[in-house]
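hey
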């Protein structure tokens, strides 16, 4: 068992193509020491996908926030589907001692 930590921060995708933005979603595990996890050079996080940033102009003002919440949760469910499947069914892995668990 390992705790999963997700993080995200809005970023610009391109300076030349206007205001294109996305929220990259990173994954790390909680049994890595916090002081090691903070160092980018240790490669303790992995990019698992991007959350779309949309102004949701096709929705009315009163329903725009609900649509944003639904979009966020839908995209997160798609990103985390492989992790959920591994948690439910298990995943065989080779341990550091060479044995398969």
């Amino acid at each position: 068992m390992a705790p999963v930590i997700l993080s995200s921060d809005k970023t610009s995708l391109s300076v030349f193509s206007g205001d294109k933005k996305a929220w990259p979603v990173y994954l790390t595990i909680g049994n890595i020491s916090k002081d090691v996890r903070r160092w980018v050079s240790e490669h303790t996080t992995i990019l698992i996908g991007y959350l779309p940033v949309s102004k949701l102009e096709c929705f009315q003002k009163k329903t725009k926030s609900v649509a944003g919440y639904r979009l966020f949760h839908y995209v997160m469910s798609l990103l985390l589907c492989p992790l959920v499947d591994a948690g439910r069914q298990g995943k065989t892995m080779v341990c550091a001692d060479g044995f398969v668990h």
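The CA atoms of residues 3 and 36 lie 16 Å apart. The radius of gyration is 18 Å.
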